[in-house]
Design brief:
It is a single chain. With 242 residues, the chain is α/β, with parallel strands linked by helices. The chain is built from ten helices and ten strands. Helices cover 40% and strands 25% of the residues. The strands form two sheets. It has a six-stranded mixed beta sheet with strand order 6-7-8-3-9-10, sandwiched between helices. The protein has a four-stranded antiparallel beta sheet with strand order 2-1-4-5, covered by helices on one side. Helix 3 packs parallel to helix 6. The longest helix is centred in the C-terminal third of the chain and has 18 residues. 39% of the residues are buried. Bound molecules: adenosine-5'-triphosphate (ATP). The site of adenosine-5'-triphosphate has 11 residues, from helix 1.
Length: 242
Amino acid sequence: MSILTIEKLTVAYGDGAPVLDGLELEVPDGGVVALLGANGAGKTTLLRALMGLVPVRSGRVLLDCADLTRLSTEDRVRRGLALVPEGRSVVVELTVAENLRLGALWKTGRKHRGPARDAAVGQMYELFEPLARRRDAAGHTLSGGERQMLALARALVGEPDVLLLDEPSLGLAPLVVAQLLGVLRDQAEATGLTVLLAEQNVTGALSVADRGVVLSLGEVVADRPAAELAADPALRHAYLGF
Ligand code: ATP
């Protein structure tokens, strides 16, 4: 059963040639899908198109069978999509705790105010120990790894159904990468979260993913179980450059 269906999606910047060209993809409900491809393959563009952040020339995006293609980014977030963009975007003037509370802000209803919200934030401190120790520290004093943890935790506080992650491991130490990817894997298993993980770190991404999807020239050229993809040197060589 798919949670996200992408039908013949074509995206271009301005009058340029399409960056995504009739892309078709089914993302299964629950688990981690690694989105792979060389530099410029269109991974970021796909994630941004799913959020409504770049205009779609044609095609459709369905979440749980509902057509999102014409919805605003805000409405997509309300329906359960979240994006952690490349670059560890946190509000650097605010503390860790304040950033986490922000993550719950857009949600409506009692569940995301007062004690329930504090419990959700507390859960993030359990998942990301370094954040617990630095809860009163301002964003700008955090290390790169801590910032990436905070960006991820802030998205998780909003309890999305589908989390889109753009290159979370970029520039981080291997130990921090392992910790971050491990949390994603665990969350997907424990909560049924679906993660679409765009990564240049092919080995790391495939080690926590259930499936691997390879983009090339704006199309899906492989969509296979992660272990199978990791064990296919010809495919790795052809599309992933190693
Ligand atoms: P990377 O891993 O380098 O981020 P990517 O797979 O995420 O690559 P995209 O960033 O989606 O790829 O870029 C795909 C193509 O679209 C590239 O050729 C890029 O130059 C082009 N592109 C991306 N953003 C824009 C933009 N705002 N305006 C024009 N062209 C763009």
